[in-house]
Amino acid sequence: MKYWIHTFLIFYSLMTLCQLQPFLNERDQLVNQWVEFKQGEVMGVIEDEHGKPMIAQLRFFDPDGAIVKRIQSNEEGSFEAVLDEGRYTLEISKGYEYEIKQLPIEVQNENPLTLTSISLARIMDWGAKQYISGDFHQHSQFSPDGRNTISEVFDANRANGLNSGALTDHNTVSGNDEWVTLAKDSNFIAIPSQEITTKQGHYVALNTTELLDITELETKNDVEKMISMIHEQGGLIQINHPGRQFLNWEQAALFDAIEIWNGRAMPPLSDQTGVETSFSYNEISKKKWFDLLSSGVKITALGNSDNHDISGGSMGASISENKTFNEWMADGWYNGNPRNYIKVEEQSITGILDGIKQGHVFITNGPLMDITMNNVSFGDTLENVVDAEISYLIASNHGNLQQLNIIADGKVIEEIPLAANVPTIGTVTLNLSPYHWVVFEVTSESFEYAISNPIYLK
Ligand SMILES: [Zn+2]
């Protein structure tokens, strides 16, 4: 009986081997091809329009438009990347005020590709209009779920054209000294901060250096205590991604800011049909903020990346029927996307905090706006207005612009078409006597979007 089993097993093994043989040959061929697959080097220097070397972001796209690699040039403008042989589109950018350049390149193993003096021109200057850009919710390795060193996060901020930023690691202030020191001799304003991650919601304590060791907020009193501890340090407190997790809506007026746009979910555009809640909660946050404004609560809306990985990854794949969602997902998740533009009286932490307190802010992932209504702007109050003259300038380095929506008490009361690729300047007069607040929103043909803080009417 034993022998029979042995004989059968040998016979069976031989049969299996014969069946496998064609597959093994195929595998060997694949391995050989793979061994022959070579890599090549690309290097170069990025300069501004005056020939000054600068730090910028570079992304390599394959012929299907998928991102293969994301790097940044250094302080001397130079960059170096190793990629598989082949054709790519190299995109060079630096936030929303510089042009976005796209170059077709070919990577070869034998000949390293050197791209000397690629110039990237500044095409808009919102700094001249007293605006400072800032991302006030970002993580480093000091967070258990953060990937990068603090200096990598710092470089990514500048490569993405940010003027200021906060480091907000979960329940720690350990990275703040390095964050502030790195910015010391630069014109970047580094704000020491922390993210208070509690079981009842997450908060950014902006401009705080002392650790707030809070993981539970069980009573209303706990919330009030947390807020006053932050204010005592000279800081501001933001409710993070409330559409995902926030319970204390009846206490919302006590907070300084509300993050209505968090980079881990889609921009708060109106149509997000079919997108799961974990990627569409910004729409919920925006609606809740509108409800607060309509109930008479004044609270500044902010938008931040909540970045955990400067390479744009670690978002987690998701499948959806929504085309805009898939495009948005494929574009990655970078520092400063979205970001705030704050109108400041002085270029300092104090200037930024005051600007936030007063609501002199719009949020964007591309479109820039400069709007006045009877000569006041975002965060200001107008009294006894009947006819309001609204002057607007809307521009974007992405192109794609679609329309400017004027929203009063939560409803779109005017839609103004925008030129897709050139700045649109205009004036419109509207009767605003029935309304209490006005917000401006810029839409695009893709996922670029901007939204302002309100002008209040009394
Ligand atoms: Zn966070």
- Report the sheet-strand fraction: 25-35%
Sheet having the most strands: 15 strands, mixed
How far the N terminus sits from the C terminus, by CA atoms, comes to: 99 Å
CATH architecture of the largest domain: Alpha-Beta Barrel
- The low-confidence runs, each spanning 5 or more residues with pLDDT under 50, are 1-24
Radius of gyration: 26 Å
Under CATH, the topology of the largest domain is which?
TIM Barrel
Domains counted in the coordinates: how many?
4
Structural class: alpha+beta
Name the assembly state.
Answer: single chain
Q: How many DSSP-defined strands?
A: 25
> Helical proportion?
10-25%
User: Tally the helices: what do you get?
Assistant: 7
Bound molecules: zinc ion
- CATH class category of the largest domain: Alpha Beta
- Tertiary shape: globular
